[in-house]
Queue: 2 jobs
Job 1
Amino acid sequence: MSATAFASRDFEPLVHTREAQSISRPSLSYWQDAWIRLKANTRALVSLYIVIALMAFTILGPVVWNVDPSLQDLDQISIPPGTDRRATLVAPYQPWDGTTFLEVTPGLRLAEPATTQSIRLLWDPVEGLSGYRIFRNLFPVGPERALGLPLAEHFSAQEVTFEDLLDLVPGRYYYSVLGVNEFGAETQYLETLVVDVSRVITVDDAMVRGLIDEAAELQLGDVLILGLHPLGTDYLGRDMLARLMAGARVSLFIGICAPFLYVLFGVIYGSAAGFVGGRYDQGLMRFADFVVALPFLLFMILFKIVFGIGPGESGIAPMLLALVVLSWPATARLVRGQILQIRQEAYISASQLLGAKTNYLVLRHMIPNTMGVILVTLTFAVPSAIFTEAFLSFIGMGVAPPTPSWGSMCNEGIKTMLTHPHELIFPALLISITVLAFNLLGDGLRDALDARMRSTE
Amino acid sequence: MNTSDTSGTGNTLDSFSKSAGRQLLVYALMSIAGVAALMVALSWASSLTGGASAGSQLGVDPELNMITLTLREEPPQLNSTLQTDNISGMVIAHLIEGLLRYDHNNQLAPGVAERWESTGMDATFWLRDNALWSDGVLVTAHDFVFAWRTAVDPANASEYAFILFPLENAEEINKGEMPVEALGVTAIDDRTLKVRLARPTAYFEKLMAFSTFFPIREDFYNQTNGRYGADAHELLYNGPFILSRWVHGANLRMEKNPYYWNPDRIKLDVIEFPYITSDQNALVNLFTDKKIAYTTLGAESLETALEKRWHLERFMDGSVFYIEFNFRSHRLTHNYHLRKAMQLAIDPAELVYKVTKIPGYVPAESIFPLWLRGVDDFFRQEYPAQKITPDLEAAKKHLEIAKRELGISEIPPLVMLTGDNPISNIQSEYYQGAFKKNLGLDIKIDKQIFKQRLAKMTSGDFDMVLAGWGPDYDDPLTFGDLFASWNLNNRGRYNNPELDRQVYIAQNEIDPRTRMEAFAEIQRIIIEDVVVLLSYERGLVYVTDPRLKGIVRRQAGADPDFTNAYIVDAAN
């Protein structure tokens, strides 16, 4: 029998001689991995930058471009971006007595230089006529005698002056004066005059607009630069850029707030139904089906009345409520489905066997595993909410004037689509870009957050 | 070997891409053909369902002697005693004729009445023998008696009953104090109608061309069981045209009335109204495609019209637009200085020339528009209105006084009630901006559809309201009595005994000078007491097909009037 002798050193722990197993790369959490995959998706990444830029546009924009969005600059109505802003300083408007004149040439002529303040025309009386009609055109009067806008009618042959004040913009006008006989019929007497109009501003207006500080600062006839409108102005001379920023506040508020609230509610409702299951699940989901059937527009109007939203007040609060109250079932169904599926998984049973409480199960296992679905729903809900807001403001159920929103700006812009396209294009473009960016980002997130698509080594 | 291999692969690739390309081409052609076939099928299907109503009409059709027009809105109904809006007014005036009518020079002309005689307190009308209803029955004096009694009958609840008040006992009957038989109108026989007036009425003859005074035949009216004028077959016609089709919400068709007493005057055979729309872009497109013969143009389509080189015409439709204040005592706007401040802070010329931008609009200086006749000349030439020039300093002083008098440090937001149409929208936003900028006043815009706006105006649920008034008859009184304390259209309940007294003079005097002086006094009170903020006199720019002539425009009465219109065919 041999005895083994143990030395005390035999009971010392072994020393690491080599790495048994090494983790060659840093371990990745779920979120880190998702972020890496999102970064690899150029489309989603660009969309993310656009969303960030939109946030900056909304929050920081008004700080940088500090212009009142409801201030009416009636000197510059419906001007497209990049218009020449030079204007000559002139004396305040004085009514015309018809006696001034520039040069003595026969026929239709200008009595004073043509400006955007007024255009004063003068012609010689013609025997045998009993009146004149005055026309203005933007295009040359062709052989078909398309004289243009009928500005006025004089009922006396001796009334040979006309002052045009209507919507004068810098550019070229073709004026015509047509003789009318005693029966009110057109005669052969027709004179035309080409007029080039220059932009002017009065001293008072310049001071009101803050372009000059004191009347003495500039002489009459000096040229000054009118207020800048980088994206032009709308039909009341309001700055488009400032209005787009103010509109973004409304559109993005609805677009982010409403989905966040109803997705949150949907998640709670859906996970409760899915987890409890059985008869309660049936009851809860049938109620969700009932809510789906409720018409949105009707509820929006009902809320407006119940809230006592008076005349001229914003309909944003009822819109938010209606969206939250009626839109959650989709999320709830989705989350319930996921929870039902996860509940059957083996690791849940194992966890339960080990004595995990309900709270722990839901918070540790269920919600994180449905996170991908929830986030994707959220990002897809954002564009749809923005669209709903735009649509409701478009039909006049949303914001109250003068508060702009992108939808209401489109509504106004569509009327002048052919003549002043910029009033429609800018808000429409922003809606499209925002909706597209959120959609593509949602697409990217769906791929990135899907646990089954985790990056493999 | 190698080479052949390569070429072999090349061949397969080649043929593959060829066949793929061919397949693609086939698919593309098939889808294009499919879409085309679908379009043809759909257009054929729509021609089946659309039937005669819409589709292939021409704006001006010389062969059928027919023109095609649009209506801004559908007439609510065509009962002449209940009609209030000018669209039904226009339609009714083409279908039914009163005792008198306006001719192509806008002069009063004989209608159903051949001749008439009036002595201040009574009038006699002799009806012509050949005026027939569209079922061939003679139009008699009894038809007028019945129509007028129906119009004042409180059971009928006509909003225009007041227009008959010059008749003896009409006001009492309308209040329910007398039976309808007491009305001062009698049919002496079938051909003679005698009218007794409650007061001398200078404009009585002009009223005879207004639709509330049009005839209705009693047996036909009773036969419709209260649906008189609700459908094409529930209306009897004695005017130039009959309504041969009325599809509610869709289209109307008028045809020449074979029983009309003066068939030579009517040159058109058919007037179609296949579209009911007020959408400016739609109207411009329809006119461009020569689907309609006439359209009005909004500010936004003027440039398009210039590009298309249309011959534009302008017309002032005779109505005046203004902001009415609420004078009920719990409203801030009953304070004179607040109203005065607002009057001095705005410039209607700016609104007209820079914001609405339609030629024909004129900044309003008086509640009486420019076209009204005075004694010898235009009323406004004889009695010029006091001119208000904007003065911000004075306006601010008045605002301070108003705040002191009202005992408040800040004026709370005022509610401005407005209609839901492009012109009202832009106008209310302009005023909102102007009051904010010039006086620091906040305005809330309450946008409502026509019916709802009318209900709110009647109940007094507003501080200010954008309103307008078009003339009912050709006399300054149609504007002059608007703010009389008893007038139901005085929505703000303005009550000024002095103004009432002047209205009373204007209603009861016959002498033109006395009446015009009363109107001048009314004009002064309305401006000085700031009863309204005057905005503009409305004009419109319109374009007609060059082949269509003879359209008559008028301020008081049916406008536009197509009864004298005719087609000039270029081929002839």
Job 2
Amino acid sequence: MENEVIRIGIAEWAVSREAVVLRTAGLGSCVGVVLYDLERGLSGMAHVMLPDSAISRNKKEEIGKFADTAIVALKDSLERMGAVRLRAKIAGGAQMFQFKYEHESMRIGERNIQAVKEALHAVRVPLVAEDVGGTNGRTIEFHSKTGMLMIRTVNVGTLEI
Amino acid sequence: MLDPLEKDVFKEVGNIGAAHAATALSTLLGRPIDIEVPSAELEGFEKILERLGGAENYTAGALLRFTGDVEATLLFLMPLEDAERLVGQLIGEQFRFFGEMHSLGVSAWEEIGNILIGAYARSISDWLGLSLHVSVPASAFDMVGAILEIGLLNSTKFGNMALYIDTRLSSLGDALNGHLLLLPDEDSFAPVFKRLGVDPNGK
């Protein structure tokens, strides 16, 4: 039987204790972050848009939007559900537009990747696989049963990590 | 939610801007372009993506930034195949992105974006007597969700929502469909309201 697919929109996050497929579509400069405990069948995903929640004016509604808040929320929720051995996989952080004059916000992909890695380090969750940077948009699917993260692009094909 | 007064102002901005952009496109192609009444909304990210055909819709995008009295991101978006047809008409032969003539087509596509969005910007700045600078165009050919994200970054004031003014352009004969999407930065429309003598807080 096919596992249920949980769709995570831009700036959203979700966790599950079931055998599921966690999916987020059209990651550009955003980073898709997966935390999971394979042995206990627990998994979660966030579609992170920005590095730092310090600029947020609606913290409660914007947990999934920022690297720092999203990763803490994923870890805490999964641990409350019984996770012991959490691992992380990430994908995204592309630079979609090549500008002749660089504006700081255009480097947001790189800044997101760095912020996600720092936040994972801060909560001591090891990063076991990544597909980040470049210039292509990505749709990702995490299969909680196997721990496989599938990455699809429209221009350069499909990858499994 | 936008109040009715704000909505009217934003729609009028869309009307004036997109009408001039459509005229520019129609001149470029030598045939009429249909233009829909613009919609102006404050909506969740996912709703905006639905309007554009879903996050994975394979899309050609041209992006320009407005700076000066109004700060905003303007995106011209077209399904990839329609954009290929449009570029093909301009360069006079069949065209595919990522093929042999890719860089020629990208230049043509960016020039189309430049002309349309330049017309949009000029008409708004003339109408309002505001100073508006337009950046050089940049382009991307990918999933529309990935293209759109950069336009959503400066909208954090509203939670997971963004303010947008969208106008659909189409040419039925060639089945060309496009969106001109204006995404203002936070609070960047204050000078527009001021110039029009409108208090957005209604007090």
